[in-house]
Amino acid sequence: MIREGLLNTLLMLGLLAVPLIAQAMGEPFVITLATKVAILALAGVGLNVALGLGGMVSLGHAAFFGIGGYAMGILAAPVQAYEPLMTWPIEVPGTKSMPVIWAAAMAAGALAALAIGALSLRTAGVYFIMITLAFGQMLFYFAISWPAYGGEDGLSIYVRNGFPGLNTLDPIQFFALAFGLLALALLFAHLLARSRFGLALQGARQNPARVAALGIRPYTLRLTAFVISGAITALAGALFADLNRFVSPAMLSWQTSGEIMVFVILGGVGRLFGPVAGAALFILLEHWLGGVSDYWKLFLGLILLAIVLFARGGMIGALAGRQVAHD
Amino acid sequence: MSALLLIEQALNGLQYGVMLFVMAAGLTLVFGVMGLINLAHGSLYMVGAFACAAVAAATGSFWLGLAASLAAAAAAGALVELTVIRRLYARDHLDQVLATFALILVFSEGTRWLFGSFPLYLDIPAGLSGPVTLPGGLDYPLYRLVLIGIGLAIAGGLFWLIGHTRLGIRIRAGEADREMIAALGVDISRLYTAVFALGAALAGLAGALVGALQSVQVGMGEPVLILAFVVIVIGGIGSIKGAFVGALLVGMTDTLGRFLLPAAFGHIMDPSSATSVGAALASMLIYILMAGVLVVRPGGLYGRA
Questions:
Q1: Beta-carbon contacts of residue A71 (< 8 Å; ≥ 6 apart)
Q2: What is the torsional sign of CA A32, A313, B99, A233?
Q3: Alpha helices, H only, chain A
Q4: Could you read off the pLDDT of B43-66 as tens digits, one per residue?
């Protein structure tokens, strides 16, 4: 048994060390894999705010992930076509600047989460799961059938967007960006969980009636958490689209929602660093099992099944032992 | 647009709706009785379609294939219930979602392993192919009419089963109070397996019947599963009557929306953008319907919440 704090430190150091070693050995592909882990973990950190802290089982987080991706595509694609983003009522140019894209992605994700959350949080339990899933599908079908942004084919950008002072085309520098954002998000999630808001939110998960009796509306707490969660996941979506230089409706598909949830669970629900462990394990399995068999998802399914049935604390739970409060 | 075309589309909507009902009935029963959310229900739909296609290709008989689809889906359902699902009844919804998501991966990849990635084709039986002329001069495919008939018969059968048989009494009692009926001497785990297998068989049958209209391929179950979720959310989870009304509403809204919206937008904008705006809006219409129902009645039309 290892202490959880030590385990988390090892995890982050490992994620930092692997691309540095890969850089020294001239293996850019490994750096890209590590970047993917960092970005997917960021999406998981976003979901974990809703799922782990708030107890909201959202099966529609691909909506926010995809919205982030499309925010990148919609802002960056006009630049390479030498067209303005919009001409009416005022002419707005597109942008290739990552900070602007990130802000737009987070704002769009937050707005979508506000709309979806306001409706979905009227319900609870299994209704909430199904409704978030259905709203995710709604955006998925909209993206497929709306031709302006590529429809089923998606949007490609030729050159990765820029960040002031960095060369984002260099894999290790782009990794540093993704890793930095992941670390910031983890810090934010940590502070959030200990803030008055975070404590009230966890109270609302454990016993909504008591929180209501204390004069706090659980609905408002949950909606706020859902919006924060959507914004973080949208940021991850913008980075993911930038990593692939491509965004398509697949980012909005419900399998994506399921996979983001799998990262959280593989690592351990309610654990701050759970998504990092989960995303790393997922990508490792994808590459290790994917090399062994074309049907690697069959084995992923069996492993996931075993974890849910027999090892409920996920990876961090299995290694660090101590139970955390979640329900 | 002519009245005949509208009637044809309405019949398509009805056919779509009753098939959704057959799919959603099992889902809503399993949730109502066992309190379990089963994402793998779409996989059972796929199992039914593949069993039917494989047996029909081997024997040349669609009807044998249909029987095989019922048997295979019921067997797969019972097997899954005995090995996995049964451990999930006492768990929270999150564990249920994850475990059944894992089952989808296992089913989909297992099927791809067995049958390959290419779609299988399932032909409509010779006696049922081709159109019939309905009163009023409308030529309508006979097979789709038969689907409507089968769907309505299954709906009638289920209402009878739930309302008027001993099994139905037990199912309703299990929904109300599982400890009580266990104390009265009903073997609750056998009842659960039976309900799960019944739902699975219905899903498999729907897969086989619809598979003859579309192609039979891996991943065919998930879009239908999500529609079935929309259906039971609209109808109220656990209610067979709600599932029936919800399924018809969703089937009609989707089919008529895709048909009428592009035409309606054609009156106010040019044809090409009317087609794209109409199609985009039509694909979202059932979700808008669902959101609307939830705003008015958060527990669904016939729900208890």
A1: A101, A104, A105, A108, A109, A234, A237, A238
A2: negative
A3: 4-25, 28-48, 62-80, 98-120, 125-145, 171-194, 196-206, 208-213, 218-244, 254-267, 274-292, 296-310, 314-320
A4: 999 999 999 999 999 998 999 999
* SS3 per-residue string spanning B238-288: CCHHHHHHHHHHHHHHHHHHHHHHHHHHCCCCCHHHHHHHHHHHHHHHHHH
B99 Cβ under 8 Å from any chain A Cβ: yes
Give Cα A189 distance to the centre of its chain: 13
Q: Which of A212, A237, A211 is nearest to A44 (CA)?
A: A237
Q: What is the pLDDT of residues B185-215, one digit of tens each?
A: 888 889 999 999 999 999 999 999 999 998 8
Domain ranges of chain A: 4-320
Do the Cβ atoms of B284 and A138 come within 8 Å? yes
Q: What is the CATH number of domain A4-320?
A: 1.10.3470
Between A169-178, B73-82, B134-143, the lowest mean confidence (pLDDT) is in B134-143
Q: Around Cβ B13, how many Cβ atoms within 10 Å?
A: 22
Give the range among A55-69, A171-185, B102-116, B274-288 with minimum mean pLDDT.
B274-288
Average pLDDT over residues A164-187: 93
Picking from A45, A12, A11, the residue whose alpha carbon sits closest to that of residue A319 is A11
**Euclidean distance between CA atoms A308 and B200, whole angstroms:** 22
Contacts of A196 (CB under 8 A, 6+ apart): none
- Segments making up each domain of chain B, as ranges: 11-220
Put simply, the answer to whether B226 touches A133 (Cβ < 8 Å) is: yes
Exposed e or buried b per residue across B134-152, where buried means at least 16 C-beta atoms within 10 angstroms of its C-beta: eeeebebbebbbbbbebbe
Helix (H) or strand (E) holding A273: none
**Is there a contact between A47 and A234 (Cβ–Cβ < 8 Å)?**
no
CA atoms within 13 A on the CB side of A69: 32
Test the A interface: residue of B89, B105, B115 with most A CBs within 10 Å: B105
